[in-house]
């Protein structure tokens, strides 16, 4: 049994110790904000914080994460009030959104260490691949998030927190597929 703290809560995983942390988080802990992209550590979609450092969870086994503190996108800010999340939305640096959780995790780790990173530091710290190509907006968003974190700037409104849990649990009538033409 492997134990670690995930988003501030102790967790035990009854899985093979060689299981990548990515799959323990997604499949066992149901923390699906951490995305599977390549499984090779190249894309960064699976980025999480491990003891405050941004690491690719597809490259870390749960035995390597034993006793460590893991933060996923769900633990960064449930209401999307983290400066990185606000700035990504405000700068329109999100397109399809698949890479966004990994980018937010890499950016928040950078800002925790460097309050006002340069463009070169941002580019070096964000190894994530974005198929939509929003890189110039990502740099501006991370610069802005740094200003917000330093209280040098504010963003007028946080993004909406999403679907209320009560609404998500409601039964929704099934939608039938339209009739096909022969």
Automatic annotation (TrEMBL):
The catalytic activity of this protein is classed by the Enzyme Commission as 1.3.99.16
Write down the top EC class of this protein. oxidoreductase
Q: Which domain of life is it from?
A: Bacteria
Residues annotated as coiled-coil are: none
The record, for InterPro entries, names: 2Fe-2S-bd, 2Fe-2S-bd_dom_sf, 2Fe-2S_ferredoxin-like_sf, 2Fe-2S_ferredoxin-type, 2Fe2S_fd_BS, Beta-grasp_dom_sf, Diverse_Oxidoreductases
* Protein name according to UniProt: 2Fe-2S iron-sulfur cluster binding domain-containing protein
Which residue numbers delimit the 2Fe-2S ferredoxin-type domain? 1-76
Q: Which UniProt keywords apply?
A: 2Fe-2S, Iron, Iron-sulfur, Metal-binding, Oxidoreductase
Q: What is a single molecular function from GO for this protein? A: metal ion binding
């Amino acid at each position: 049994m492997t134990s670690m703290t995930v988003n501030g809560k102790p967790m035990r995983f009854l899985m093979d110790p060689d299981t990548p942390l990515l799959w323990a988080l997604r499949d066992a802990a149901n923390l699906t904000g951490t995305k599977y992209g390549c499984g090779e550590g190249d894309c960064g979609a699976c980025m999480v914080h491990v003891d405050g450092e941004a690491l690719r969870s597809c490259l870390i086994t749960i035995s390597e994460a034993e006793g460590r503190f893991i933060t996923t996108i769900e633990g960064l800010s449930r209401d999307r009030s983290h400066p990185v999340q606000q700035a990504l939305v405000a700068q329109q640096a999100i397109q399809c959104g698949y890479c966004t959780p990994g980018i937010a995790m890499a950016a928040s780790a950078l800002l925790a260490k460097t309050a006002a990173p340069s463009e070169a530091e941002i580019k070096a710290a964000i190894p994530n691949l974005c198929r939509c190509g929003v890189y110039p907006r990502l740099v501006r968003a991370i610069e802005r998030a740094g200003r917000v974190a330093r209280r040098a700037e504010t963003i007028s409104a946080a993004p909406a927190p999403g679907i209320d849990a009560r609404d998500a649990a409601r039964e929704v009538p099934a939608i039938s597929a339209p009739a096909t033409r022969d």
